[in-house]
Amino acid sequence: MDDRTADGGGLAPQAHANANGTAGENGKTTKLKIFRGDAEGGEEVEYELPMVEGMVVLDAVLNVQAEQAGDLAVRWNCKAAHCGSCSAEINGKPKLLCKTRMEEYDGEEIRVHPLKAFPVIKDLVSDVSWNYEVSRSMTPFTSDAQAPFTMYEEDVERLYEPKKCIECFMCQDVCHVLRTHNKHAEFAGPRFFVRAQWMEMHPMDNQNRLKYLHEERGGVGYCNITKCCTEVCPVGIKITDNAIIPLKERVADEYYDPAKWLMRKLRGNRNGARNGG
Amino acid sequence: MASITAAKNRLPWWVGPITVSTVLVLFTVYAMYVVFFRPDGQYQSLLSPFYSPPVGIPGWMPGWVTAPMLVLWIPLGFRATCYYYRKAYYRAFFWDPPACSSKAQEREPRGNNYNGERALFILNNIHRYFLYGSIIVVAFLWYETAVSFFPEGGFGMTIGSLVLLTNIVLLSGYTFSCHSFRHLVGGNKDCYSCVKSGGSTGSEVRSENFLRKLRRKTYNGVSVINGQHASWAWASLFMLLIADLYIRLLQAGVITDLRIF
Questions:
Q1: Does the pLDDT at position A128 exceed 70?
Q2: For residues B72 and B58, is the Cβ–Cβ distance under 8 A?
Q3: What pLDDT does residue B198 have?
Q4: B128:A257 CB<8 A
Q5: Contact (CB<8Å) B192/A152
Q6: How confident is the model over B85-102, as a mean pLDDT?
Q7: Quick count: other Cβ atoms within 10 Å of Cβ A127?
Q8: What is d(CA B126, CA B174) in angstroms, rounded to the nearest whole number?
Q9: Are A277 and B194 in contact (CB under 8 A)?
């Protein structure tokens, strides 16, 4: 990922324009409280800046960085809600800074913090590398066939939604299993349930990840389906309904359904050995 | 719709869990009252959905056993293990978490004893069996709704029959939008086009194609109504109460069942 973890460096051209162009014309200003600190600790610092119609929070943060705090660290890249780099918390809720308009908080205090489920590196930048470790722990897509595959639309229409994921990790951040209960060592999190659902439902994949999800690193049983991940997903993936619950149902098939358990016993198969056909 | 969502988002985080817990407690209290103290739910051709399917009480059972006790555990178990209600009561009663904002999650009970659905709540995995039982109950409710359209032997329509019809439509929507049902009709398959019976004759191939299309259409249809599972859950719950209250008011002679034709 070619993110710009700007520490006084990368600056959005639009932010310059806002700061130096039309911003002062109507004389309106706005205030923003930004977390300044690192893993050792920190505090909110309030900044006042020119308010421009249509401004998003990332514009404001970059304006502060350009005009008032050159050492402010913020991660961003596409500024079009496609790369997932600028995820942070605004007033305690995970948001993409580039997709959140300042007008949404008209009359409210705006407080910007880094993602709290992961260690802070500096200011608004968290270390999300844990997610890549989880990703590596999962059996990747594996097929006996050679790509490009010939598949029917009816078999792949369910796979479009999980592929929309931009890996902003906001679902991971809001998930209370990680954020409150710190189950990082035994719970993969919603982002990787989305990935697992894509692979498990892929007609050309020949691997089985139910054992991983239930008995190993996946820890899908920790999820109590309270849907915070779905609420914050910036691309609208119905994570709980379309990824986590289908996986829980497949786990129930394998581990908790007495009729299916009996059938497996009669056929001499083991739990977790399913390869959905 | 957008303005409703915006207004909802402006409410304090505790409004949701407090409202849900209040409604669920009131419903549980009412259901317990019906189960323990109201042995009769029939008024002419109308049967309260709490009493469906109508079962006789065996003579060897203690006198305090009522008809709803023998049947109500199926729909109540279905709701108690439902994926939507699980979300609702984990948030409302256990505050695990009460809502999604950081302020709300700070109120969540902490510690190392969080098990999610790996300890006691592992029992929720039995949900599909309550679904199977509920499908049978729904079939009986459709039959009893049909009976209510023959109030005095001939075909006719009363307010009571419309109440029961609304109830069973909403209850069917709730039952068949269930996540376990969605899994059953296609979510458990990776490949719809892979239906192979080994047949090679024209009729066997046609049968395979029919099965493929049926499965896909059923899965997609269930997926559509599954998107509104929470709405079906609440609407059917309130309608259940309304239907039962309507029949109680008829029994008490407070109102009369108006005949439309």
A1: yes
A2: no
A3: 60
A4: yes
A5: yes
A6: 94
A7: 14
A8: 18
A9: yes
Q: What's the topology of domain A4-126?
A: Ubiquitin-like (UB roll) (3.10.20)
Above 50 in pLDDT, residue A14? no
Extents of the domains making up chain A: 4-126, 129-267
pLDDT digits (tens, 9 = 90+) for A55-92: 999 999 999 999 999 999 999 999 999 999 999 999 99
A36: contact with B, CB 8 A cutoff: no
* Assigned architecture for domain A129-267: Orthogonal Bundle (1.10)
Q: How many C-beta neighbours within 10 Å does residue B231 have? A: 15
pLDDT band at B56 (very low <50, low <70, confident <90, very high): confident
Average pLDDT over residues A223-242: 96
DSSP 8-state symbol, B259? B
Q: What is the pLDDT of residue B113?
A: 85
CA distance linking residue A97 with residue A115, whole number of Å: 12
SS3 state at A196: helix
Q: Taking CA atoms, what residue in B is nearest to A208?
A: B190
Q: What are phi and psi of A33, to 5 degrees?
A: -105, 125
Mean pLDDT of B86-93: 96
Chain B 85-104, residues with CB within 8 Å of chain A CB atoms: 86-87, 90-91, 96-97, 100-103
Burial class (CB in 10 A: 0-12, 13-18, 19+), B93: middle
Summarised one tens digit per residue, pLDDT across range B170-223 is 999 999 999 999 999 999 999 877 766 566 677 877 888 888 888 889 999 999
Residue A173 exposed, middle or buried by CB count within 10 Å (0-12, 13-18, 19+): buried
Q: Are strands A111-113 and A29-38 parallel, antiparallel or unpaired?
A: parallel
Cα dihedral angle (B76, B78, B79, B84), rounded to 10 degrees?
Answer: 170
pLDDT value of position A272? 56
Collect all residues of chain A within an 8 Å Cβ-Cβ radius of residue B216: 154
Contact of A42 with chain B, judged by CB distance below 8 Å, is answered with no
Alpha carbons A5 and A169: distance in angstroms, whole number: 16
Domain ranges, ordered by start, for chain B: 11-109+116-156
Check if the beta carbon of residue A189 is closer than 8 Å to that of residue A172. yes
Q: Using an 8 Å CB-CB cutoff, list chain A residues near B192.
A: 152, 154-155
Same fold, A4-126 and A129-267: no
C-alpha neighbours within 13 Å on the C-beta side of residue B147? 14
User: Residue A255 pairs with which residues in a beta bridge?
Assistant: none
**Nearest-angstrom CA–CA distance, A88 and A74:** 9
Per residue in B22-36, pLDDT (tens digit) is 999 999 999 999 888
Residue A276: the pLDDT is 43
